Amino acid sequence: MGSMEHYDIIIIGLGPAGATFARLVPDKYHILAIDAKGEADQYRKPCGGLLAPDAQKTIAEMGFHITKDLLVDPQIFSVHTIDFSSKLERHYQRAYVNLDRHAFDMWCIAQMPDRIDRSMDSRVIRIDWQDGNYIIHYRTRSGQTVTASARYIVGADGANSLVRRSLYPTHKMRTYLSIQEWYPHQASHPFYASIFDPEVSDCYSWAMYKDDCFIFGGAYPQAGARERFDRQKKKLRDYGFVLDRPIKREACLVLRPERVADIVTGKHGAYLIGEAAGWISPSSLEGISYALISARELARHFPDMPSYRRLKLKLFGKLLKVPFLYQPTLRRLIMQSGLQSIKVKT
Predict the structure, then answer these.
(1) Which residue in 6, 244, 308, 343 is a FRET match for 318, CA 20 to 30 A apart?
(2) Can you tell me the distance from the alpha carbon of 293 to that of 139, in angstroms, rounded to the nearest whole number?
(3) Pair (194, 72) in one structural domain
(4) Model's pTM, two decimal places?
(5) Do residues 184 and 301 both lie within one domain?
């Protein structure tokens, strides 16, 4: 193997999934963790950054707690739902926690034991198999290419997972481009909005406030995604959205499973957790709870492969929910009924 350092496990990606696995896996393993994020904040995941009830429950079950420095203003307890196809609007009570997503990711990393070697601000560029070990080639911020080996690898590297593509080169999963823009804004009546516009996407869009910024984003079919995003912004002017002169635009791929069988969890000493495996809600695109649960299950059973029975049932339930949110006729009937909607003073 030459002079390269050998590990028991190399973790690729330190979002909530990778960092939680590193925190919980037994300390008998010699571990290297590689992640694109760095102290200088070069990489941020484009994400609305709302901690949904499912994720809150999972954090509570694990005995974790988050600190107030991870929170942003305001904390809003309703979602303003806008349906372009029916022209209906409703408000629904929701108990989301408004987070700084990058701060949350860095907090997850900070909980990892000091015994774990880390290479931050680094990107894996190739994965090879040699003499019963995985050979990981990664590039650091300085441009240096480093090589390390391990008996096991854990892919927690998100929707565009290199580990998943290496293990399952022919596996396909429904994929969208998530685009999000930030605007400077001071609002007297901040809100969180969920927007359904089947003319531009069969998924959904969101709008929310974070401290002194307003965020608008959505998940769009990859073909013509940017044109769809810009077209939707123009349509939202009729609803009072002012979406001019953004501070920044972010984009990333996001998966959206159509069946439980879409999930791939690894093989041959390589494991996939979080969105790298396809664990994400097809109804809301919420992924933090799936990241935490899949990481916990793998850490509990490692090196055996968990059954992920609870996660599969959770995903199946979300799949059953999808038609009621995304089939225009069903969505219109539910919104017309006013079921579970609330009146919000504006």
Answers:
(1) 343
(2) 30
(3) yes
(4) 0.94
(5) no
